[in-house]
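Subgroup meeting minutes
Present: P.N., E.W., G.H.
Scribe: E.W.

1. P.N. recapped why we're keeping a running log of single-chain structure predictions: easier to compare across weeks, and new members can see raw inputs and outputs side by side.
2. G.H. added today's entry (414 aa).
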Amino acid sequence: MEQVIKNRRDADRMVRQLLNIGETMYDAGTEISLIESSLCKLGKSYGAVFVQVYAITSSIVVTVEFADDLTITQSRRIKKRDSIDCRKMESLYLLCQKCSATPMQLAALKDNLTTIAKQRPADLQIYIGQIIAASSFAIFFGGSLKDAFAAALGAIVICTIQRWIKPFFSSQLFFFLTISFLTGICINLFNLVVPDLHVNQILIGDIMVLIPGIAITNSIRYILSGDMISSYEKLMDSLLQAFCIAAGFTVSMLLIRGTITDAVTSNDFMRNCIQLLFATSGTFGFCLVFNVPQKHILYPTIGGFICWFTHLFMLSLGCHVFLAALTAAFAVGLYGEIMAKILPVTSRLFFIPSCIPLIPGKNLYYSTLAVIFTDREMFTDNIRLLVLYAVGIALGLAVAAEIEKAKPPASANR
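Output recorded in log:
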């Protein structure tokens, strides 16, 4: 194999490409541990004797040492994060695997990375995905078909603002405040015109496509893995985003002062079947939003069904909601790890969309509503459930990942 790194200039270019790969991984929603391990493996495949990668949610530092005492250290500030693009994530995973096995020339690596970085889902795909997700979860949380239609209109407003107005915002928090406020205004005005709508279920459906539930869960997973700096950054960032989203909807309701109505839900068999159906369709919608490759889109959709079926099954046995969320997340995490072994892709491609039905968007909304009506008991109950769900999801996924990583000791006698 031809030596790729011949001098210091080549070493500098190689480390720069490692940083470019790490930044693109961040942009795709790859977790920090996988970024660090992938960059370390890539560096060693190019002849480095020592590679150290320190990644947090806001920066990456890479140190590479070669046999001739040449040491290169470079860092990169990460500004764009918290987006999820499963197609880009898969392409980066396969590129790292290919390049680790057979290092390619740095120019070819740069060209491949540039092509991957330019990938983005079609606007129509995002519109369809968010419409399906918002309308499905409006029904999932007890709404009617009319509520689903209103939630779909809200999703169109959200997509339009994200596509055409977001570039004008320098502050991400102010953007989330604005998008939730404008969406809430549209829904509440629609409620004044169309009778018999359940505004709560409509807004919860739209909150589900905005709430940074995956980011909150990841922050707790970082705590469990001991990465306190990343966990603190991501948790605070996610909670501030969630607060701005909830505040935007709240201000819109106070401004319009329409009738805030709630659907009456039950826990009978038919209701559970409806929830299973729309948990599955809602997961499919998020698969489109997260740009899951078409050849894999069926598997995380099935994972959404497995997730909510497991959750309902555990609740039917009388289990606490925390144990039900943990078990459902564990089942989804194990399912994702198994599918990742069958198909040569990262397990995140499967369990990220699959755990969406567990994301506590409903509890975030009702805790905000409790602030409006100064209902301390309602606020306490929903904040408690929000924390229990977030910790349960994170712990369940973490346990599944640890079980998969546990390798039996190799036998000395073969």
